[in-house]
Amino acid sequence: MKQIVTIKLPGAPQGKGRARAFLRGDRIGHYTPQKTRSYESLIFGAAVDAMHDRPPFDEPVLFTLSATFPVPASWSERKRQRALAGEIKPAKKPDLDNVAKAWNDALNGVVYRDDALIVVMFLDKRYGPQAQVVCTVEPVEGSR
Questions:
Q1: For 52-86, what is each residue's pLDDT tens digit?
Q2: In 3D, which of 17, 13, 36, 35 has the Cα closest to residue 90?
Q3: Model pTM?
Q4: Is residue 62 a part of any domain in this protein?
Q5: Which residues contact 118 (CB under 8 A, 6 or more apart)?
Q6: What does DSSP assign to residue 95?
Q7: What is the rounded distance in angstroms from the CA atom of residue 116 to the CA atom of residue 53?
Q8: CA contacts within 13 A on the Cβ side of 32
Q9: I need a labelling partner for 95 at 20 to 30 A (CA). Which of 13, 60, 67, 124 fits?
C-alpha cells in the first residue's frame, strides 16, 4: 500500500527567513528569526498530527507543495475571477523556494528522516478563496 501524507496549514504562506548574525564579544553567532521559528513550529505540529504516530519515511520521497494566496480585496471582481481561475498568478513575495525551504526544514525528523530524501519536488503558487499551504509527501515508486 502506498503511503501518502498530506499536511494542510491554513493562513498565508510564509518563506523561511534568512539566518541573522550577531557579534557577542569576539564571537559571531547566528539565529533564525522568531517569525520563521513560529511558522516552522505550526508546520511541525500539523505534520505530527498528519503522521498519526507513523515513523518518518526513510526512503526517497516525492514532495509536492501548493501555496495558495488570498486574492487582494482591492482588485475588481473581473480581476478577482481571473485570479481564481488561475489566469493571474501571485508573482510576489514570499519566494516559492523560501516557502518550500521552511516546510522542508520543519518536516525533518517527522515526515521524513532528512530532507536529503526528497528526490522529486513539485511546487506552485496560486490564488484561491482562502490562504493555505497543502503539502504531500509520498515514497517514490521503484526507488528501493
A1: 999 999 999 999 999 999 999 999 999 999 999 99
A2: 13
A3: 0.86
A4: yes
A5: 60, 61, 62, 63, 104, 112
A6: P
A7: 22
A8: 13
A9: 60
Number of domains in the chain: 1
Q: Alpha carbon of 40 to those of 32, 37, 45, 121: distances in Å? A: 11, 5, 9, 19
Measured CA to CA, the distance from residue 94 to residue 15 in angstroms comes to 5
Q: Is 116 helix (H, G, I), strand (E, B) or coil?
A: helix
Note whether residue 144 is domain-resident: no
What CATH number should be reported for the domain holding residue 27? 3.30.1330.70
- Determine the pLDDT at residue 23: 80
pLDDT at 57: 96
Non-local (6+) Cβ contacts of 58 within 8 A are 112, 113, 117
Q: Which residues contact 20 (CB under 8 A, 6 or more apart)?
A: 30, 31, 32, 33
Residues constituting the chain: 144
Q: Are 100 and 123 in contact (CB under 8 A)?
A: yes
Q: Residue 50: which domain range?
A: 5-139
Intervals of the chain under pLDDT 50: 1
Report CA 125 to chain centroid distance, whole Å.
11
